[in-house]
Amino acid sequence: MRILQLHSNFIVYKPVEKEINIAEESKKEETRLEEIVVLFTAIEEGDSDALSKKAIDDVRAFLGKLKVNRILIYPFAHLSSNLSQPSLALSIIKDMEGYAKANGIETFRAPFGWNKQFTISIKGHPLAEQARSYASNQVTTASQASLPIESNKEAPVSAALKAEDTLKSYWHILQTDGLLVPIEGYKFKGKSNLQKFSQYEIKKTRAVTQMPPHVPLMKRLEIADYEPGSDPGNIRWYPKGRMMKALLEQYVSMRIAQYGGMEVETPIMYDFNHPSLSSYLNRFPARQYVLKSEDKELFLRFAACFGQFLMAHDAQFSYKQMPVKLYELTRYSFRREKSGEVVGLKRLRAFTMPDCHAFCTDLEQAKKEFIIRFDLCIDVLENIGLIKDDYEIAMRFTKDFYTENKDFIKNLAQKFGKPILAEVWNERFFYFALKWDINFVDNQNKAAALSTDQIDVENAKRYDITYVDEKGEKQYPLILHCSPSGALERDIYALLEKAYRDQMTGKPPMLPLWLSPTQVRLIPISDKFLNKVEEFAQQITNHCIRVDIDDSSATLQKKIREAEQEWVPYIIVVGEKEIESGMLSVRVREEKKQEPMTIQQFIIKISEKISGKPFKPLPLPMYVSKRPQFHG
RNA sequence: GCCUCGAUGGCUCAGCCUGGUAGAGCGGCUGCCUCGUAAGCAGCAGGCCGCGGGAUCAAAGCCCGCUCGAGGCUCCA
């Protein structure tokens, strides 16, 4: 007996004419069945009734997995060249039908002995197509693999990706005292975020039902939106969002300049066939945007590494100048992530990432530099608005590296002050000896990496980057790769997710003051006070504070409601009282209350809170009534 | 790439099962109201019901295909 079992969206068949004289009676009508498992069945020489039970039992096991309970038994002679006698075949088929029905399966059957035409739509999942064959002496099944339809297509998978499958990694928790505890024995008491993150990394569980909260927020707050006219993951930024992103760009660039990074700019596209690039690139064939220009094949960069490495290759430097630090703000880095995994601001195909490389003489220098950058990353994130409670760290290294650099790793763990998820390999496969990343855990318990730094022990050689040592000899440096903030879009994602979480716990959701598009909203009680309000606005603007005026004709209550919904941190209603007394009643979002103060006091208070941060003027007209609406 | 679900004014969504005139709220526009800390009132405009095909006297609705989106699977240097 041979059965081809197909999980189908639908099948339509129509008996055309009788093929043999013992054919069953049937009308020549079209039959359509949906959501059904179709069993194309051929009965072979020597098959017995016992086989029909065995076959149906197997089918029943599959129905459970497929969550379907309807089958169509479809006599199909073409599966075998060793068919049994038609009369016996019909009896076995009827037997199958009866046994299936007796087992509670909703069973249909196509007529035996007819030439039938059919159309079938087969589902695409791995279990949808199964073939079995049964011999009567020993009831064996040759399932799945024996079928030629079976797709064993080898997708072009890079060596690195393949290795990840087979690579054994051992998960530990790195405690603040530098000790590694196997994760099985670790008590996560009070560390639920770390536990969630560990689960995410190790088990790769991704059970989620709703849209991530930051997506509706980014739209409603007119920060960013999908751009259907582009490719998925290429985002459109509205004025408010563009301003926020520009401020982040300025801030991170400033911090890296202070650290000593020399800002450069390199091309966004590279020649696929460039000798230094191709060996690196060929490890990740499926990930690039590829474009053709005349007879050249180019790819869009996925990080700043290429440009900076090619630049470093041509540059001349010695141990005296090291570490040499190059920095670029990549706008953009492109990664052609699979369509199903691109989400909101969390995972994009085009994103903005600060990328700072430090070329170091040896491991001692690299370690020293690494610590400085670790502090820098944590501080940058904190200033952006993400504190240690908001994220967890994952660190990856080999057993040997840990043994040889215990103090160094302990130092990092102590600095962080919270346990760290550690992935330990027996052998180094990747190009780095040590890597860590900061991971934000969002409202769906999904993790997204922000800041990261790595010690790269391979690429200097690959790109032939050298420095001159004390003896005048050429040496390969170690390269640190660091993004102190991670992708800036992702920072905004994290801020929005964090705000949503605040809202859920009863705190007012808001953006950090220095990133808020409107920092202060002035609301005149009536048109009469508009002139005076404009004077206030001018005074506040003079101190580099973004202030706007709601001059619309709505009621006072409505204007306040709208300002609150825009997450405006300070709302000031101005009427006769304020103008006469000079005392403003400032509605402070953060504290959910109103505070009286003079305009000077107010300006000082705000200025203190945003000192040290870059400033950009209001991204929209000062008068609310003059603003277009970018999102319904 | 696969699975599931979805696509209806600018936005959010109802209507679809059971075919027969396309609905609401928000937003927009116009007018009234000039207001004391989270939604004032009234009127008006605005829709190729994603695209293509099929069955039907008749399709937003039923059937098929396609496109796009969301979530999941897979994957994530």
Can you give keywords for this protein?
3 domains, six-stranded mixed β-sheet, alpha+beta, ten-stranded mixed β-sheet, RNA-binding, 632 residues, BirA Bifunctional Protein, domain 2, single chain, 27% strand, 28 strands, D-tyrosyl-trna(Tyr) Deacylase, Chain: A, Rossmann fold
General description of the model:
- The chain is an alpha+beta fold and 632 residues long.
- The protein folds into three domains: 2-146, D-tyrosyl-trna(Tyr) Deacylase, Chain: A (3-Layer(bba) Sandwich), CATH 3.50.80; 169-494, Bira Bifunctional Protein, Domain 2 (BirA Bifunctional Protein, domain 2, 2-Layer Sandwich), CATH 3.30.930; 513-626, 3-Layer(aba) Sandwich (Rossmann fold), CATH 3.40.50.800.
- Helix content is 31%, strand content 27%.
- The chain has 17 helices and 28 strands.
- The strands form six sheets. It has a ten-stranded mixed β-sheet.
- Strand 24, helix 14 and strand 25 (547-549) form a beta-alpha-beta unit.
- The longest helix has 22 residues, at 363-384.
- The protein is extended and about 105 Å long.
- The two termini are 62 Å apart.
- The model is unreliable at 137-166 and 203-209 (pLDDT under 50).
